[in-house]
Amino acid sequence: MNGKIWKKSAILCETCKHHPVQDLLRDLNSESRIFLDRLVLQPKTRDQRLTSLRVITVKLASYFLLARTNVALDAAREAEKTARLRSMHDSATGLPNRELFDDRLEHAISLAQRHDWTLAVMFLDLDGFKLVNDVHGHAAGDSVLKEVARRLLEHCRDEDTVCRNGGDEFLYLLVNPRETSDIARIASELLKSVGQPIDADGLLIAVTPSIGIAVYPDSASEADQLVRNADASMYRAKRGKKGFAFFQTVEAEGNLF
Fold it and tell me: Crossing angle for the helix pair 46-87 and 2-17, nearest 10 degrees?
């Protein structure tokens, strides 16, 4: 019996030594440490030693089970976090999706109200993208979208957000630009960058972006209205082949077309 208990304790100890539980075992409470010290340092009868070994075996097994449970819980939490992140991002480009963009826009508006900031929402559409899919296939189209996303991110500051709105549409949230001229400058840079030819598996493909811009609070004070106004301005820019266009108050009165 003595040999079996020693063997079981040795196996548990050896297993724990190579498992994340080792950190937990180092943190055994003081009572358990005193108990272990007494087991080693104080002479005991055979029955006392057997009883002590049984207790140690049970304690080690309990700590081992607790550690495995904690590891499993951590893994489950990490998997849930990863799944949530994936659900908030576009699978093709890795950019935030519209749901996450709307959440950040609402948050930015709250900050803008508190600190008297300006915000700009840019609605970007790729002219001729449908032709890319029809002529070269969806694989080439996906390559174009990924490269456009990468180029947009190159201009994006930490406080700004770029998202794929769906299809060939992107949204860009610019937080607290200093002047309207700064917004126009960034829009011009985006037009130039995105408009450069894209290498899609050996094919050089060029898409021309059109950008509509709505500014908070001048264009609108609500998140959904800002996006709608930016969308309307994008169509104005597309028709006029202007590259980008700001939303004007008269547009809301029906003079857009």
Answer: 30
